[in-house]
């Protein structure tokens, strides 16, 4: 449970229709396995104690009495466990029969949550046996079945964890999700962050895909965890087949999913602190109802008349089994990755197209270094001109060699521009920079920040003045990762008239350029793009070796690996995780790639730089938002430039 992770399970046991003893034994067996795995919330299928397909046997008192004995027996086996368990069972109350989830913990049945919407169409005829829940309540007397402590209520209830307030558990049953206004809508409005669905969804062609999308969409809409647990092998096949399709989802993403027609246990960990963060951030998400336990006057299934029960969990560290991508900005699936890259290029180029048209710019001017960022920006300029049906010669690409420029990057810059048919200009800034050093009294052999930034600012001056010459606008090339780290010269490469890469992280820049190279039709263009991809990332601000071929400055040697920084950016800034949690996930995701002390070092670097360099982000040029993370001061990120990093740095060492 450390860092908000709770291990949950969807369990589909083998059953025999109407054989309660057999079914209870199978349920208890799976509960033992869940306990061994550290599961804290376990969900079983709808009516699993009797079987969903009992038909008119549901009218038999012998079956109903035995089912209650089975519920109590299951409850007693949990006496030495804090696991919250839900099993499906028919319940007699108010002179009717209800399809319920029996909620169990600490050796007792805590509540019976009834099903609201009863399907009575096609192969379903639940209304023949069960009454729909309409807000009525009852106390269920289990004394004759062996539970003596108290009589659990039958009503709509959510369970609130004392130790982890972000964990609030609500229950709905099968059709309650499939209707136009699902019960889980109200549970979430009342504060539920985990929805448990006890289901007996039969299988027909195409239904598994629909079911999967239904669960994913509902978990995303509610910003919730969702456990969908369905009946499987053992239900009657007289008219239907059940596949045991179990799904564990978190805010629109599948964490774990069972194979169809394989009974068993599906386990994963849901991050409830992450869900709580997102709900707080979304201003349109409704506030939870005030917890007035006596309020029953607001009408059926209003968020204010859903009862709250408290429960406790023993605190401990949850062993993680779910995967955390090393590159969270990049889809792991090749087809999805290509689609993402294509869409990003379209977004970037359309954003630039609008700006060019609005400003009536005759040209766009871009500094081209032979590196990844300027390459991507140039490709976007080409696509924008194509959209405007204007010649590529309206793009003025300027290479500005100086002390650190290598022959490789200089050559690649020229080849790239020639292959794209843009106007190419070279302005050697060495003399201008040396004159500037003389003017301010700076020794050429002093390779301090003055030496580096003097070149960066000279390049920006050249670009701005050329733009004035050709009635153009300067296109910025800096990416999101550089902005997060402040790895840009203030009023140097930090400045432009429109920044097309401003919300593209460095790890994704590489894949977009790769995609362009893979899909272009020019062999020359493809070859140069591939060579640029193979070139180390460098600002090239320190002198090369005597041959002019070897870089003496590599960015990742100075600020750390970009794959780590993008990981820190995604989880630390996008999701607001504590640095200690970011560190834990990084060590989990990059196990075997980096020693723990290396991750610690660069994580501290990330937070130190992120805080100290905010002043650069506070005055960024315009640039369209592309992904879920952006640091524009006009968009998603507003932060005081003089905020102190002390709390975050201390948390890393916790």
Describe this structure in words.
Helix 1 packs parallel to helix 2 (61-77) and helix 8 (372-388) packs across helix 13 (506-519). The model is unreliable at 290-299 (pLDDT under 50). 47% of the residues are buried. This protein is of the alpha/beta class. The strands form four sheets. A seven-stranded mixed beta sheet has the order 13-12-11-10-9-8-15. A six-stranded mixed beta sheet has the order 5-4-3-2-1-14. It has 20 helices and 20 strands. The radius of gyration is 31 Å and the shape is elongated.
Mean pLDDT over the full residue set: 94
The number of distinct β-strands equals 20
- N-end to C-end Cα span: 16 Å
Could you tell me the strand content as a percent range?
15-25%
Largest sheet: 7 strands, mixed
Number of helices: 20
Strand order of the largest sheet: 13-12-11-10-9-8-15
Instruction: Based on Cα principal axes, name the global outline.
Output: elongated
Class by helix and strand content? alpha/beta
Helix percent reads 25-40%
């Amino acid at each position: 449970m450390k860092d908000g992770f709770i291990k949950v399970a969807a369990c589909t046991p083998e059953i025999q229709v109407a054989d309660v003893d057999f079914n209870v034994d199978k349920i208890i067996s799976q509960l033992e396995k869940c306990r061994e795995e550290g599961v804290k919330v376990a969900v079983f299928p709808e009516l699993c104690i009797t079987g969903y397909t009992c038909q008119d046997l549901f009218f038999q008192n012998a079956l109903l009495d035995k089912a209650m004995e089975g519920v109590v027996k299951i409850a007693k086996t949990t006496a030495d466990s804090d696991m919250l368990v839900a099993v499906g069972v028919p319940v007699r109350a108010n002179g009717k029969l209800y399809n319920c989830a029996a909620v169990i913990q600490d050796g007792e049945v805590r509540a019976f949550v009834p099903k609201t919407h009863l399907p009575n169409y096609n192969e379903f005829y639940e209304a023949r046996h069960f009454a729909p829940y309409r807000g009525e309540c009852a106390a269920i007397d289990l004394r004759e079945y062996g539970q003596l402590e108290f009589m659990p209520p039958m009503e709509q209830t959510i369970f609130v964890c004392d130790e982890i307030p972000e964990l609030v558990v609500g229950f709905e049953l099968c059709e309650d999700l499939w209707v136009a206004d699902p019960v889980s809508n109200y549970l979430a409005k009342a504060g539920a962050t985990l929805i448990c669905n006890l289901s007996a969804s039969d299988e027909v062609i195409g239904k598994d895909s629909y079911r999967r999308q239904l669960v994913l969409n509902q978990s995303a809409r509610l910003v919730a965890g969702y456990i969908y647990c369905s009946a499987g092998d053992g239900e009657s096949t007289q008219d239907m087949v059940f596949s045991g399709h179990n799904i564990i989802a978190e805010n629109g993403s599948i964490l774990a999913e069972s194979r169809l027609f394989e009974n068993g246990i599906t386990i994963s960990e849901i991050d409830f602190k992450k869900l709580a963060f997102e709900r707080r951030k979304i201003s349109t998400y409704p506030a939870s109802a005030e917890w007035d336990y006596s309020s029953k006057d607001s009408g059926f299934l209003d968020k204010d008349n859903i009862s709250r029960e408290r429960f406790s969990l023993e605190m401990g560290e949850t062993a993680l089994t779910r995967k955390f991508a090393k590159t969270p900005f990049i889809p792991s699936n090749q087809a999805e990755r290509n689609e993402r890259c294509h869409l990003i290029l379209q977004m970037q180029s359309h954003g630039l197209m609008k700006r060019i048209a609005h400003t009536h710019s005759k040209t766009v001017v871009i500094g081209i270094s032979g590196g990844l960022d300027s390459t991507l920006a140039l490709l976007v300029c080409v696509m924008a001109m194509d959209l405007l049906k204007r010649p590529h010669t309206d793009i003025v690409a300027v290479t500005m060699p100086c002390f650190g420029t290598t022959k490789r990057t200089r050559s690649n810059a020229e080849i790239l521009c020639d292959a794209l048919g843009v106007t190419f200009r070279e302005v050697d800034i060495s003399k201008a920079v040396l004159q500037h050093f003389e003017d301010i009294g700076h020794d050429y052999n002093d390779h301090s920040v003055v030496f580096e930034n003097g070149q960066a600012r000279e390049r920006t001056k050249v670009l701005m003045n050329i733009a004035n010459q050709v009635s153009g606008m300067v296109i910025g090339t800096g990416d999101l990762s550089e902005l997060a780290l402040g790895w840009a010269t203030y009023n140097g490469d930090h400045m432009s008239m429109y920044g097309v890469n401003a919300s593209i992280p460095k790890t994704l820049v590489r894949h977009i350029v790769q995609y362009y190279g893979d899909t272009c039709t020019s062999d020359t263009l493809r070859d140069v793009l591939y060579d640029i991809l193979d070139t180390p990332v460098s600002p090239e601000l320190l002198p090369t070796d005597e041959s002019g071929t070897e870089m003496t400055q590599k960015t990742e040697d100075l600020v750390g690996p970009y794959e780590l920084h993008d990981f820190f950016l995604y989880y630390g800034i996008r999701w607001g995780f504590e640095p200690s949690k970011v560190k834990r996930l990084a060590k989990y995701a990059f196990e075997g790639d980096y020693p723990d002390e290396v991750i610690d070092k660069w994580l501290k670097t990330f937070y130190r730089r992120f805080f100290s360099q905010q002043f650069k982000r506070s005055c960024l040029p315009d640039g369209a938002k592309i992904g879920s993370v952006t640091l524009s001061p006009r968009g998603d990120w507003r932060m005081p430039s003089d905020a102190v990093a002390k709390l975050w740095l201390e948390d890393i060492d916790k």
